[in-house]
Amino acid sequence: MPKLVADDIASLLRKRISSGEWQDAGRMPPERDLAVEFGVARNTVRRAVGFLEEDGTVVRHVGRGTFLATSNPSSMAAVVSRMEGTSPADMMEIRQLLEPAAASFAATNASASELNAVIEAHRIACEASDMPTFEHWDAEFHHRIFACSRNDFLKEIHNLMRILRNQAPWFEMKKRSFSEERRAIYCTEHQLVLDALMRRDPEGASRAMLAHLRTVERNLLGR
């Protein structure tokens, strides 16, 4: 069995915290105990716990131990932590609820400069010569539409969704489903969304975005 590295241990610890382990005590076991459990050096566990501290999952107090920042299951941090395991199917369902609304708002509320930013993202995505570049600007196209919506709460919800979709498993899934034919279809569908935005047609923008997301869902999930 390969030796666990700090990233692996951090991921395992996050899952255990999300499942409610150590919730009653409100603190994690000592690093020396975790090192024995995982069969690694103590400094490897220390690095892993450091990653959890950086993202706000835990708080370390010298001489006292490592405490869960998510000890309250109803706290914002606890909710966000549980979202890390969101399934692709659940994510696509929520995208189909939120993104057509964002496109509709954008058609009504976007400034000319904001629409130009969407045009720029679309152009660069269509000109991309490799999958990572296309994926970046494809995501940026959607991100800039949320910015055009002028709804700060909706925009921040999308920021959270974007973080979840930038995790390694999501990228690998997108990589497996990618093809030049599908990229061309996505660019065509993005153009239809963009055309509706430029016409200031909220219903058309919403319909075009929903149609696009259903294509993405079929390609990613096979349904």
Descriptive report:
The protein has about 220 residues and is mainly α. The chain folds into two domains: about 5-80, Winged helix-like DNA-binding domain superfamily/Winged helix DNA-binding domain (Arc Repressor Mutant, subunit A); about 85-220, GntR ligand-binding domain-like (Four Helix Bundle (Hemerythrin (Met), subunit A), Up-down Bundle), CATH 1.20.120.530. It has eleven helices and two strands. The protein has helices spanning about 5-20, 30-40, 40-55, 75-85, 90-110, 110-125, 130-150, 150-165, 170-175, 180-200, 200-220, and strands at about 60, 65-70. The protein has a two-stranded antiparallel sheet. It is elongated and about 60 Å long.
Provide a brief overview of the structure.
The protein is mainly alpha-helical and 223 residues long. The chain has helices spanning 6-18, 31-38, 42-54, 76-83, 88-109, 112-127, 131-148, 152-165, 168-177, 180-198, 202-221, and strands at residues 58-61, 65-68. It starts with 5 loop residues before the first helix and ends with a helix.
